[in-house]
From TrEMBL:
A matching Pfam family: DNA_methylase
Protein name, as recorded: Cytosine-specific methyltransferase
Reaction it catalyzes: a 2'-deoxycytidine in DNA + S-adenosyl-L-methionine = a 5-methyl-2'-deoxycytidine in DNA + S-adenosyl-L-homocysteine + H(+)
Family: Belongs to the class I-like SAM-binding methyltransferase superfamily. C5-methyltransferase family.
Organism expressing this protein natively: Enterococcus caccae ATCC BAA-1240
Length: 373
């Protein structure tokens, strides 16, 4: 039986693709509001994901959609404390999580997966994650992998049960993220779930796409990706100032032979900026001294450049993995009018697909134990 899923806060479809790779899930509805991400999603999946999950119109539309699994990579936002007397759900009003929780309440999917940044657990001094867990367990009636409940209804958890790092799932990227997986108690029974659920996988042993970052890097990138001498000097001076203060902040050349192996990248970021500066590459110095139209000073003499969008795509599993067909052809691509700035943003805002695939397989494993597949 193929399970029907919906893809909320869809971005460019990384969560969807990770689930599709298992062969056990079929997407029936998507929602995204960023116009550029929508273009990329449509280009690669053939579906128009345009939809605003905060709108009553979209929520009413979902009531007519038959689905089993809800997927969402939602933003981390502070919750109000004023509404607690009306229940924890009310305290989340005005945030994307509230809209997701409302959709769960109205449609009661059998399973959901929520993905977020790792500081979700420290956000607002722990109040955010506590509210989320109260809503999911007590108000929506789901069993959450990694959450325990005592006889008095008190919930406990360890953040290590939810945070998984992309570097342990086949790609050389240090990217810890939170994965929250819940199962509907009314569908499966709380006692059955207590026996069936298992902790999230900590790593993948079945794939290792790259031995380290050097396997992923594509040497000889175009001149536009190399840092201008002036920019490199600015970064070096900035790092030196912080170093004198005892801080470790600054740019990083991630494939510098002087670094301890294995060589891995820092997390790629949707903001682009520091995500690029902390992931610089040592490449050819063939462009040293060359003037490029969009740079105020000549290209640096050390051969230091930004990683390319394609290399970011490899780090996230979009390129050279998730969209490779049976003939070995990579089918992922951006529409022609998507700029490099948008490519960096979209990959930085995406999930690491091999991690998501592993989570999807874990869900399948549990559902098989429950006799639902």
């Amino acid at each position: 039986m193929v399970l029907k899923m919906i893809d909320l806060c869809a971005g460019i479809g990384g969560i969807r693709r990770g689930f599709e790779l298992t062969g056990e899930f079929k997407n029936v509805c998507s929602a995204e509001i960023d116009q550029f991400a929508i273009k990329t999603y449509k280009h690669n999946f053939g579906d128009d994901p345009t939809g605003d999950i905060t709108s009553r119109h979209f929520k009413d539309k979902l009531k007519k959609v038959d689905f089993d699994v809800l997927l969402a990579g939602f933003p981390c936002q502070a919750f109000s404390r004023a509404g607690n007397q009306k229940g924890f759900m009310d305290a989340t009003r005005g945030t994307i999580f509230f809209d997701i929780a409302e959709i769960i309440e109205e449609n009661k999917p059998s399973v959901f997966l929520l993905e977020n940044v790792d500081n979700l657990f420290s956000h607002d001094k722990g109040n955010t994650i506590s509210t989320i867990m109260e809503v999911l367990v007590h108000e929506l009636d789901y069993t959450i992998i990694g959450v325990e409940e005592d006889d008095l209804g008190n919930l406990t958890w360890d953040r290590s049960s939810f945070i998984r790092n992309s570097r342990n799932f086949g790609v050389p990227q240090n990217r810890p993220r939170v994965y929250i997986i819940g199962f509907n108690n009314r569908v499966y029974g709380r006692d059955n779930l207590l026996e069936a659920v298992e902790e999230l996988p900590k790593r993948r042993e079945d794939i290792n796409l790259y031995n380290d970052l050097n396997d992923l890097i594509e040497k000889g990138a175009p001149a536009k990706y190399y840092l201008a001498e002036g920019m490199l000097n600015t970064l070096e001076n900035h790092r030196n100032r912080h170093s004198k203060k005892g801080n470790g902040f600054g740019y990083m050349v991630v494939n510098d032979p002087a670094r301890n192996s294995p060589l891995i990248s820092n997390a790629v970021l949707a903001t682009g900026g520091s995500g690029k500066e902390r992931n610089l590459i040592l490449d050819s110095n063939e462009f040293a001294g060359v003037h490029v139209s969009n740079k105020q000073t000549p290209i640096n003499s050390k051969g230091i450049r930004n990683m390319t969008p394609r290399e970011w795509g490899k780090l996230q599993g979009f390129i050279n993995y998730a969209f490779v067909d049976k003939k070995g052809h990579d089918q992922f691509e951006f529409p022609k009018d998507i700029s490099d700035t948008q490519k960096y943003k979209q990959f930085g805002n995406a999930v690491t697909i091999p991690v998501i695939e592993s989570m999807a397989k874990h869900i399948v494993k549990i559902l098989r134990k429950l006799g639902d597949i």
